């Protein structure tokens, strides 16, 4: 969802449950933070050029499974699934979490920032489908 659509949805909703409004704000903030911290290397639409693997649908996706991307051996052989906890650990210290990865250290230690980016990544993922595949 683009920021404009999110804002429009916020304005149009007559009596949104508070939780929904809060979620939308988190997703919107997460998109802004993603744009600042991750977008230069990661597309969220696989038809766009992407230096790193595209991150659309990444939540609960098996690590190293984006078809055609040339992953490091460490990532490809990790056998992990991108759960929210794994994504947090990765954002916080990707090199420590997975020695040998070729992603440059990003070091996002602020849990709120992690939360927002996670909310955004979840909003562009088919979590139920991915969970069914990784189970
Ligand atoms: C400087 C470029 C760069 C930045 C900035 C960057 N990444 Fe990455 N990312 C990469 C590369 C390159 C890989 C592939 C790593 C490998 O193969 O070891 C990667 C891999 C990943 C993966 C694994 C995906 C998969 O298909 O298994 C995730 C998840 C990820 N990055 C999330 C993020 C997030 C979230 C941010 C922002 C907080 C971010 N990255 C910032 C370059 C970057």
UniProtKB/TrEMBL annotation:
Presence of the UniProt keyword Cytoplasm in the record: no
The keyword Secreted belongs to this UniProt entry's keyword annotation: no
Residues annotated as domain Cytochrome c: 25-125
Pfam families reported for this sequence: Cytochrom_C
Domain of life per record: Bacteria
InterPro entries: Cyt_c-like_dom, Cyt_c_1A/1B
Leader sequence residues: 1-19
PROSITE patterns the record matches: CYTC
Keyword annotations of the record: Heme, Iron, Metal-binding, Signal
Coiled coil region boundaries: none
PANTHER family, alphabetized: CYTOCHROME C
Name by which UniProt lists this protein: C-type cytochrome
């Amino acid at each position: 969802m683009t920021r404009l659509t999110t804002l429009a949805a916020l304005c149009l909703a007559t009596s949104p449950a508070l939780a929904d409004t809060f979620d939308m704000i988190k997703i919107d903030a997460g998109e802004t933070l993603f744009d600042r911290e991750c977008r230069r290397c990661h597309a969220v639409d696989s038809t766009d050029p992407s230096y790193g693997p595209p991150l659309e649908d990444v939540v609960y996706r098996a690590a190293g499974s984006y078809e055609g991307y040339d992953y490091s051996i460490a990532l490809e052989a990790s056998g992990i699934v991108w759960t929210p906890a794994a994504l947090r650990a990765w954002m916080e210290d990707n090199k420590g979490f997975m020695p040998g990865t070729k992603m440059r250290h990003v070091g996002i230690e602020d849990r709120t920032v992690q939360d927002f980016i996670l909310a955004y990544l979840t909003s562009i993922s088919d979590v139920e489908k991915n969970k069914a595949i990784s189970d």
